[in-house]
Write a structure and sequence with these properties.
The chain has about 260 residues and is an all-alpha fold. Helices cover about 75% and strands about 0% of the residues.
């Protein structure tokens, strides 16, 4: 049997295992599309973590968990006679072919940027009333801001160069400072703080930086440095809260310069 046949048999066996769990496992029987929402979200984040860690073994496992979620949802759909696995696959095939006319048609493109631009135009032809449609509500706020700005830029609503984008950050920080110093209501301060973050995300886009990825890396870096403080405190038989800020800063700065961070 060739590799294609092995893959098909393997996939069908996997589907049957999921269906059996659905029939016989008390927990699996109780699940619905709604109850599995967080599972899909958590599994997606675990895929991202394995990619960030360049852990191919974990990536294989986590992609398998995503596949489980897909088959689980389609199994529920088949039970409810709302949709099937074949329909899901067929719709995705149709979408891929329709959105890649430079591969499956006679459209010519100059590079990846034109492919992305055409992709958005094709999605609007599919019936979307706003260019901003298609950005999931559940996306983390930084990444959602990035995608919203990216979509608006596709129709020309964008700065021409990065300088005014940076100037906008300074302007928004000034407005935030004004609101704080003048004791304005908390909701107005919050509004200005949101504007600062939104303008920083916009600048990140001009620098070709994904702000979500950048912040995740900084969080990981902060965690590693702070854990050095905790390890030092433990080695001295004390707790971090027993240390002064100056003592913590010494450990923090040593962690910054130890060469173990990427």
């Amino acid at each position: 049997m060739d590799n294609k046949g092995l893959l098909k048999d393997n996939f069908l066996e996997f589907v049957e295992i999921v269906k059996r769990l659905r029939r016989e496992c008390p927990w699996d029987k109780e699940q619905t599309h709604e109850s599995l929402r967080r599972c899909m979200l958590e599994e997606s984040y675990e895929v991202l973590e394995s990619i960030d860690n360049n852990d191919i073994t974990e990536l294989k496992k986590e992609l398998g968990d995503i596949l489980l979620q897909v088959v689980f949802h389609t199994t529920i759909g088949e039970e409810q006679n709302t949709f099937s696995l074949n329909e899901v696959i067929d719709l995705e095939k149709e979408k891929l072919i329709a959105r890649h006319p430079h591969i499956f048609g006679d459209v010519k493109v100059s590079g990846a940027e034109e492919v992305k631009s055409n992709w958005e135009k094709l999605k609007r032809k599919e019936g979307r009333e706003s260019v901003l449609e298609g950005v999931p509500a559940e996306l983390p706020a930084l990444f959602k801001a990035y995608r919203i700005q990216e979509k608006a830029a596709k129709v020309g609503f964008d700065w021409k160069d990065p300088k005014p984008v940076y100037d906008k950050i300074l302007e928004e920080i000034g407005e935030l400072k004004h609101n704080i110093e003048n004791g304005l209501e908390q909701h107005k301060i919050e509004d200005e703080f949101g504007d600062v973050l939104f303008s920083i995300v916009n600048y990140a886009r001009f620098l070709k930086i994904n702000p979500e990825d950048a912040l995740r890396k900084t969080i990981a870096k902060f965690s590693k440095r702070f854990q050095k403080i905790e390890a030092f405190a433990k080695s001295k038989g004390i707790k971090p809260e027993d240390m002064t800020l100056e003592e913590m800063d010494v450990i923090w700065n040593n962690a910054k310069g130890d060469g173990n961070e990427k």
